[in-house]
Every structure is written in structure tokens, then in C-alpha cells.
Amino acid sequence: MNNNDLGYQRSAMTRIREFLRMDRFRAANIAGKLVEYGFYGLIFFLPISKALIETCAGFILLGFLIRKSISKDLSSFKSDAGIFWLLLIFFVFNAMSLANSGPLLGKGIKTLFCKWLEYFLLFAIAIDHFKRARSIKRFIYVFVFGAALVGLSALSQKFFGFEFFRQRPIAGGIVTGPFENPNSFSPYLVICLCVVIALASWKWPRKALNFSLLGVGLILLVGLLFTFSRAGWLGFVAGSVVMMFLFDKKKLLLSLFAVFVLSLLLFFPFTQRLVYSFRAGWDSERFIIWRESITMIQENPFLGKGLGTYMDHSKKDIASDVGSHYAHNCYLQMWAETGMFTLLTFLLLAGFVLYRGIRISLRSKDDDLGILLGGLTAGLFGFLVASFFDTQLYSLQLSVLFWVMLGVAVALERILLHKQLQE
Q1: 14 confidence band (pLDDT: 50, 70, 90)
Q2: Separation between Cα atoms, residue 321 and residue 285, nearest integer Å
Q3: Of 174, 269, 264, 177, which Cα lies nearest the Cα of 219?
Q4: How high is the pLDDT of residue 285?
Q5: N or C: which end of the chain has fewer CB atoms below 10 A?
Q6: Angle formed by the axes of helices 230-246 and 251-266, to 10°?
Q7: Residues near 102 by beta carbon (within 8 Å), at least 6 away in sequence
């Protein structure tokens, strides 16, 4: 074989390697787009269709696996190792609770791998994917656009008697939007409102955008009021307190908050709803359920009764005639099902992300991303406050919303920390 033949073979091999590298690059790029548009679809369709949530989550996971198999880049998981260790410990404690599941072991395993693992993966993938401010902004714009449409559907439900996404009729003057009940709708609105208020506080090149976002905020606020959900109202108050602490420009926030408080005080149905909260026996059923939960906790305080088994154990409680039910308190249910260590790990994980978000947002008050992080942190805090009174973390739609938004908050924190280190 002469030198020309050897040179030709080397040249051919070089072209093949370049082609393979290019092909891998294209595949990784397509996988990245699959993840990105999967998140857009997931957050837009989240209030509308559980089937589409699962479909979009499948696209996200598929794109993530393809991209990681090509790039082998795990740096995102190393830079926030503490958060991922807490997530792993949380998963392990959930798994350990299965030791107490008894004949319900199969149900517990299904809950662990088909529900909670999905939420954890969406959280981790959101942290890994949203590395650029531009991608986070696009995601938030899709979220707000979807929220605006959902808000309009809620107003349609209130004033015209129908909701145009799921055709849900109105019952008793209570708005549910496309959700099954008002107590599911209100935590979604709390996060939406806090994010919209943050965006309306940005320095947009055109004031019309600020006024448009203010209009969206008013629509969502009216929707929140007409849910008659006291947990949602309290969650918004809690989120507003956090935003008042974080934001320098408080006029918009104070205006919306004043409208909210005056509506509660001056509009008789809202005032009546608040007053009834303090009447004897008004929430007696909920207190009965909480006492049941405490009884379950006392029986298995460390590992719980077993993941996914709360409703099955509630059926066996002959002291209560309220039947099978959730705990109407996410923290009591988590403790009753999976034990004290699981609950503490969850609170530590969520608390760390929110504390860091508040600290970074305070340092970045003049940065639009810092304002957005403040609004998102406030919304997540309000969501967790509302979760004390209902089942948000055990709803597919709201659990996906919480874990994805928590992941986006971590991604924002990373970007802002990087900016602060460069200054």
C-alpha cells in the first residue's frame, strides 16, 4: 500500500469521525429541543389536561436521557450536590416507608416509582436544563400566557356559567377554572399571581406591557377571590408578605393587595366566608381528619404507614364517619404515610431553596431575574402555606407545578449567583 492510499484512508476516517461528531451534535440538539418544548407544553397544559401533562413529561424524560447519553455531562448535578443529596435522601425515606405497607406494598411501589420519582426527575431535569436566562424567560412567558387564558376561563365560568377549557359549570357561585375543585385552583393562582406581579415590576421598554401584566394580575386576583378558598387566600397573603420584603417598588403590589383585602372586607360573601372560619363546628370534619392523621402518626412516627396508603387506612377508622379521604394537610399526610424523617427532609429541601432564593433576590433587586426569583420564591412559599390546609402535594397537576417551579427557582439562583461572582 503506497502513501497515497494511506493518506486517502486517513482522510476518509477523519471525515467519518467528523460526520459522527456532527450527527451526535444534531441528536443532542434535537434532544435539547425535546426537553425545552416539553417543558413549554407541560406548563401550558398543566391546568387543562392530566394526559397531556404525562405526555409532555415523557418527552422531557426521553430528551434528557438522549442528551445525557451523548454528552455525558453531569456538571449540573455536581454544582448543587447538597440539593440532590437531600432529594436522594427524601426518595430513600419514602422507599423505606414501604416496609410498613403490608398487603398494600404493590400500591406503595407504584406510588413511589410512577408518581414521586416522576416529580423528582422533573425537578432535577429543570435544574439541569434551564441554564440560560433566555430559556427561563421563555418558559415563564408561556406560563403567564397560559395563566391569563385560565384566568379568562374562570371569569367566563363566573359570569357566563361555563368554563371554556373543560366546560366545567359553576356550582354555588364558586369558581374552579379548569381544575376539579376550587382548592386545587387557588394554589395554582397563588403562584401565577406572584410571578405576574414580579414581571409587572420589570423595566419593560414599553409601559403598555406593565399595564397588560397588571390587567392579567387583576383577572387572576378576581379568580382567586371567587374560589372562596381560604387556604388560597392565606397563601396569597403569605406570598405578598414575602414580596413586600423583597421588592423595592411596592406600588403595584400594594395596589393589588389593597384590592384583595378590601374585597374580602367589603363584599359580603367573602366576609361571610372569613367569619365562618371562626364559628364552632364550621371545620369540624377537617379537624376530625387531622386527629385521625395524628393517631396514625403516633402508631408509626418514624417510617409511617407506608407511601400511598393514607386513604386505605382512613377507611378503617371507625371513629370517623367521613369515609375515605386525604388528610387535608400535606404535612400531616406526609408524616402519617412516610414518617418523620421524610417530612423533615422535605422541609429542609424546600426551606433551603426558598431561603437561598430570598437571600439572592435581596442582592439582585435591580436585576429583572432577581425580581422574578423573588416573585417565584414568594409564590412557592404561598403554595406551601396553602398546603397546610389541603392536598396540593398529592395532586398530579399541583405536584408537577410545585416541583418544576422549584427546579426553575434553583436554576435562577445559579444564574444569579454566577452573575454576582463575576461582578
Answers
A1: low
A2: 9
A3: 177
A4: 78
A5: C
A6: 150
A7: 306
Distance (Å, whole) CA 41 – CA 140: 12
Distance CA 101, CA 105 (A): 5
Exposed, middle or buried, 178 (CB in 10 Å: 0-12/13-18/19+)?
buried
3-state secondary structure of 171: strand
334 pLDDT more than 90: yes
Contact 125, 35 (CB under 8 A): yes
Q: Which of 419, 43, 416 is nearest to 195 (CA)?
A: 43
Tell me the CB-side half-sphere exposure of residue 152, using CA atoms within 13 A. 9
Relative orientation angle of helices 230-246 and 368-386, to the nearest 10 degrees: 150
Q: Are 326 and 311 in contact (CB under 8 A)?
A: yes
- Provide the residue count of the chain: 423
Please spell the DSSP secondary structure of 355-386, one letter per residue: HHHHHHHHHTTTSHHHHHHHHHHHHHHHHHHH
> pLDDT confidence of 324, banded at 50, 70, 90?
low
Q: Is the pLDDT of residue 19 over 50?
A: no
**114-155 pLDDT per residue, tens:** 999 999 999 999 999 999 999 999 999 999 999 999 999 999
Query: CA–CA separation, 284 vs 185, rounded Å?
Result: 23
DSSP reduced 3-state for 417: helix
Q: What is the pLDDT of residues 73-113, one digit of tens each?
A: 877 788 888 999 999 999 999 999 999 999 999 999 999 99
Distances (CA, A) of 49 to 116, 166, 182, 219, 337: 19, 9, 16, 22, 28
Helix, strand, or coil (residue 162): strand
Q: Tens of pLDDT along 375-419?
A: 999 999 999 999 999 989 999 999 999 999 999 999 999 999 988
Cβ–Cβ under 8 Å, residues 150 and 47: yes
188 neighbors 401 (Cβ within 8 angstroms): yes
